[in-house]
Amino acid sequence: MRARFDTIATARLLMRRWRDADRDPYAALNADPEVMRYFPAVQDRVASDTGIDRMEALFERQGFGLWALELAETGEFLGFTGLNPMPHGVPGAGGMEVGWRLARHAWHHGYATEAATAAVDVAFNGIGLAEIWSMTAVLNEPSQAVMRRIGMTPYARFEHPRMEPGHPIRPHVAFRKLRRPASDGPAP
Predict the structure, then answer these.
(1) Which of 29, 46, 90, 92 has the highest Cβ tally under 10 A?
(2) In this structure, are residues 10 and 118 in contact, taking their beta carbons and an 8 Å threshold?
(3) Which helix (H) or strand (E) holds 177?
(4) What average pLDDT does this structure show over 56-70?
(5) What pLDDT sits at residue 182?
């Protein structure tokens, strides 16, 4: 039987499966042009709901995924953080990516770093992965800063195959972190 990771708690956050009550705040997050500035476009409600359904299906298939993220003390919805397969055509394809998307009110509190650190812990110590990936647009310096804070290093620059040539966010960067063997020194 495959291990399940339906709920992860950190000092301040709860990473959990999705609920119907998450649909409205998640749709608002995806409709915010500032939140979505490093994506091709904002999402309408149908696309947002389809995304939740896809994330929940991932939990059913693999026992973990992109968790809904809430502030533990209040239950306030913040966005998502978690693990998702890297798409084909990019460095790390077929591997597992750590990713996040937070509502604007959740920025600059360290939530993305705290939750991503917990997700990487699940990847290495819960699932037993040897490496974890992350990627973003070259212009997305805030997400790259989170990647560095959780110990990831730049691996490759590439043109995202799903973006049209000339699009300002087509240039992407992939980061990678290797699992530290128990008997060795610090992670590379």
Answers:
(1) 29
(2) yes
(3) strand 171-178
(4) 95
(5) 55
User: 25: which 2 tokens?
Assistant: 């705040």
Long-range CB contact pairs, 28-32, < 8 A, 24+: 28/103, 29/79, 29/101, 29/102, 29/103, 32/103, 32/104
DSSP 106: G
What distance in Å separates the CA atoms of residue 24 and residue 115, rounded to the nearest whole number? Answer: 22
The DSSP symbol for 110 reads S
Distance CA 172, CA 7 (A): 31
Sign of CA dihedral 44, 58, 68, 159: negative
DSSP 169: T
95-to-5, 10, 38 alpha-carbon distances in Å? 18, 25, 22
pTM of the model: 0.92
30 burial class (0-12, 13-18, 19+ CB within 10 angstroms)? buried
CA pair distance 154, 25, nearest whole angstrom: 32
The string of pLDDT tens digits covering residues 23-34 is 999 999 999 999
Q: How far apart are CA 135 and CA 87, in angstroms?
A: 10
Distance CA 159, CA 27 (A): 28
Element (H, E) at 120: helix 111-121
Which H helix or E strand runs over 79?
A: strand 77-85
